[in-house]
Design goal:
This protein is an alpha/beta fold. The protein is built from eleven helices and 13 strands. Helix 2 runs parallel beside helix 4, helix 4 packs parallel to helix 5 and helix 6 crosses helix 7. It starts with a helix and ends in a 7-residue tail after the last helix. Bound molecules: octanoyl-coenzyme A.
Length: about 290
Amino acid sequence: MLRNVKVELFYSDFCLLTSDFHILLFPKFGSLNFSIFLFMDYEILKLTVDDNIAIVTISRPQALNALNTRFFQEMDAMISEVSGMPGIRVMVITGEGKAFVAGADIAEMVDMTPEQGIAFSKTGQHTFRSLEKMEIPVIGAINGFALGGGLELAMGCDMRIASSKAKFGQPEVNLGMIPGYAGTQRLPRLVGLGDALFLLMSGEMIGAEDALRIGLVQKVVEPEQLMEEALRIAKIIASKGPVAVKKVKYVTRTGRQMHFEDGCNLESEFFGTQFKAEGEEGMRAFLEKRKPDF
Ligand code: CO8
């Protein structure tokens, strides 16, 4: 909704229209510089906003939401767009139909040269890394098959809530391939080496309860309760200090790649700056027995 308003408001004066993007040029007053905003016409992704939660639905159900080049263009644009929407505190990603995502698009990959394969792999790795780098938390609401690139997308989210009907796997070896969107790197970090190598080497699919057992998902609910539960958790997170939540994400994710002592130093630094950012209000509200105004 907000997106459309912006496009209509500024279109007549500054917008150049391409087949896929609306390009908006905003002059910066007092200088010759222009700010450029890109708004994409989405074909595969749908964006809805519920209060301060952005819900992104992958909608290519005829191919079980398989990830093609167009998907990555749209997801990159969506990440930028949601990141720029004021007031959005959490993003939820889900799939339409019986799949979350059944993998990278095999029809698009089948004729690729090794060089094209490397480029396609790097495209996906970049997009899923961008998800991790979003300041706000991202929740995967896993409605069905999360296979290959679909599981790699799910692992790029900060947490995963699964339908009891969801199925998980890295079936690339069935195709004589290996994962290309960082599945070999994120899976062992999430579930440990043994369970990761089991999934990666066997190509076996596991159900939601097994995914919960190995820590691949954080919660399993009945299919009809999936979005309700994902939004309930999103709203709980959205009610907390938004700067604190962003800092938790940054410090936890960044610290994990650092030496332990360096991670602790990063935590102390962010802990300190949080006093004036939100901590004072949060702690005062506790002492005054009222709700904090974040
Ligand atoms: N790519 C393209 N099309 C797909 C994909 C896919 N990954 N998965 C399903 N589809 C299509 C089917 O071809 C079918 O199309 P059509 O109706 O035109 O024949 C339609 O979706 C419905 O699929 P099914 O009829 O097969 O549905 P079923 O319910 O019988 O089976 C399954 C569902 C079990 C999920 C089955 O579709 C399946 O096994 N899909 C493939 C799963 C897979 O192997 N995924 C991994 C792909 S490889 C990958 O993700 C690598 C990521 C890294 C890439 C790095 C870049 C180089």
